[in-house]
């Protein structure tokens, strides 16, 4: 099958100071050579005039050449660094189409890198996360995955399983040989037991990794007029919620995303919790309770010395008890974790530090482990089940088969085993030109 040569604008939409057009495929050098003069098959950079088929000048720019397989995609690649005007980009794109290139689909360059063995599926997902990263911690998490750190972890586990299976096969096939021990159990099963624990730890780390990737979900809950909307405005530094003295002003969930010390924190303001006959407000209370159930942390607000009803439904959630309107009340009550007033900025700063403390405690428990995507969890869990089966089996043949199945599950994470049905979903998350 003939592999088409693809191109895309990789630097974002025009106009811009510089535009980068990326070309990859077997005809990349020939096509660009017809537009800018013949190219040597060496890695380099040249200043060239780019012309159309009528020899009319389109622009002058830098031509970067990356002969395969030493390129991002593993194919011959050329990059055009040109002026970023819309007309220039459009003219060069038209000429590339006329020369036989086809426009790349989202993620097609990275898909080719995967197909040609330049990246595994874990690194591909890390690259996607890196492009989408909004905070410093998201960037750090993604760069570790994109650079292959997590792949090395998974591959190391697969190698240990392969070694164990080889030892079992040696015992089965060469039991009469003097240099093959009569039993491998004492040599491999302690390590397989340790591997089982490591995989279970990784499942926990990956589940908790969403705190960085998807955000730490902080829900502000409490009775009406406790100061919930005032607090979300104060923490976000802008008026995102309407604040009035009327109970029931907030009817629906109000969300705002903040960058706190490099972590993504998602604040959710909720309707005041109370019994009401108002149909709309009652729906708001239902949504508030549902938000609390999925929260990573609940800020349980009540006005200091207020006789307001206790929000007993919060007792099972991880929470901070927050006394509000501290400027109006003495601070004698010690059952609060924090006292705040929007008119006292230092109290808001203190609460922000408590939120970060809770977040960092959750992160520190997993930061020493590579954190994968949620897709990895099912395969890790299945691998742990197969390893557990191997540890429990008495028949050595069945043990070997369970270890093989566990190894296949790890291979599905990195893309080494039947993952074709996943590729369309994963690469569709990428932008055009990557």
From TrEMBL:
Binding site for Mg(2+): 229, 250
Domain TrmE-type G residue range list: 215-360
One Pfam assignment: MnmE_helical
Keywords: Cytoplasm, GTP-binding, Hydrolase, Magnesium, Metal-binding, Nucleotide-binding, Potassium, tRNA processing
EC number: 3.6.-.-
Necessary cofactors: K(+)
Listed GO MF terms: hydrolase activity
InterPro entries associated with the record: G_TrmE (IPR031168), GTP-bd (IPR006073), GTP-bd_TrmE_N (IPR018948), GTPase_MnmE (IPR004520), MnmE_dom2 (IPR027368), MnmE_helical (IPR025867), P-loop_NTPase (IPR027417), Small_GTP-bd (IPR005225)
UniProt xrefs under CDD domains: trmE, TrmE_N
The record's free-text note on cofactor binding: Binds 1 potassium ion per subunit.
Binding residues for (6S)-5-formyl-5,6,7,8-tetrahydrofolate: 22, 79, 118, 434
Chain positions recorded as GTP binding sites: 225-230, 244-250, 269-272
KW ATP-binding (keyword) present: no
Binding-site positions, K(+): 225, 244, 246, 249
Annotated localization: Cytoplasm
EC category name: hydrolase
Assembly with partners or alone: Homodimer. Heterotetramer of two MnmE and two MnmG subunits.
NCBIfam families: mnmE_trmE_thdF, PRK05291.1-3, small_GTP
UniProt record similarity statement: Belongs to the TRAFAC class TrmE-Era-EngA-EngB-Septin-like GTPase superfamily. TrmE GTPase family.
Known function: Exhibits a very high intrinsic GTPase hydrolysis rate. Involved in the addition of a carboxymethylaminomethyl (cmnm) group at the wobble position (U34) of certain tRNAs, forming tRNA-cmnm(5)s(2)U34.
Family annotation (HAMAP family): GTPase_MnmE (MF_00379)
This protein's name: tRNA modification GTPase MnmE
Annotated source species: Rhizobium lemnae
């Amino acid at each position: 099958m003939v592999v088409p040569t693809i191109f895309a604008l990789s630097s974002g939409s025009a106009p811009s100071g510089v535009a980068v057009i990326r070309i990859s495929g077997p005809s990349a050098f020939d096509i660009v050579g017809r537009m800018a003069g013949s190219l040597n098959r060496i890695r380099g950079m040249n200043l060239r005039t780019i012309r159309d088929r009528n020899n009319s000048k389109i622009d002058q720019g830098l031509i970067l050449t990356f002969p395969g397989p030493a390129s991002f995609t593993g194919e011959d690649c050329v990059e055009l660094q040109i002026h970023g005007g819309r007309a220039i980009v459009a003219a060069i794109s038209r000429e590339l189409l006329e020369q036989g290139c086809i426009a790349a689909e989202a993620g097609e360059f990275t898909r080719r890198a995967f197909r040609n063995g330049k990246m595994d599926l874990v690194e591909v997902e890390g690259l996607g996360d890196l492009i989408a990263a909004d905070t410093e911690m998201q960037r750090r998490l993604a760069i570790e995955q994109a650079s292959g750190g997590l792949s090395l972890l998974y591959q190391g586990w697969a190698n240990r399983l392969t070694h164990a299976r080889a030892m079992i096969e040696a015992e089965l096939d060469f039991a009469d040989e003097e240099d093959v021990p009569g039993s491998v159990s004492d040599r491999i099963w302690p390590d397989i037991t340790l591997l089982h624990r490591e995989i279970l730890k990784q499942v926990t780390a990956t589940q908790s990794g969403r705190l960085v990737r998807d955000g730490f979900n902080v829900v502000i809950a409490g009775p009406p007029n406790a100061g919930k909307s005032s607090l979300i405005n104060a923490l976000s530094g802008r008026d995102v919620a309407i604040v009035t003295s009327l109970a029931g002003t907030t009817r629906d969930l109000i969300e705002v995303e903040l960058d706190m010390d490099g972590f993504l924190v998602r604040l959710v303001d909720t309707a005041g919790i109370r019994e009401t006959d108002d149909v709309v407000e009652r729906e708001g209370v239902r949504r508030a309770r549902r938000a609390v159930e999925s929260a990573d942390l609940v800020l349980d607000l009540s006005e200091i010395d207020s006789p307001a009803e206790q929000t007993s439904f919060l007792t099972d959630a991880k929470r901070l008890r927050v006394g509000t309107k501290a400027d109006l009340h003495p601070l004698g009550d010690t059952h609060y974790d924090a006292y705040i007033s929007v008119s006292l900025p230092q109290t808001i700063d203190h609460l922000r530090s408590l939120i970060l403390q809770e977040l960092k405690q959750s992160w520190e428990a997993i930061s020493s482990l590579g954190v994968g995507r949620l897709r990895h969890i099912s395969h890790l869990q299945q691998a742990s089940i197969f390893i557990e089966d191997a540890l429990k089996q008495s028949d050595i043949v069945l043990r070997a088969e369970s270890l093989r199945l566990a190894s296949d599950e790890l291979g599905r994470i990195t893309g080494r085993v039947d993952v074709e049905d996943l590729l369309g979903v994963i690469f569709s998350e990428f932008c055009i030109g990557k």
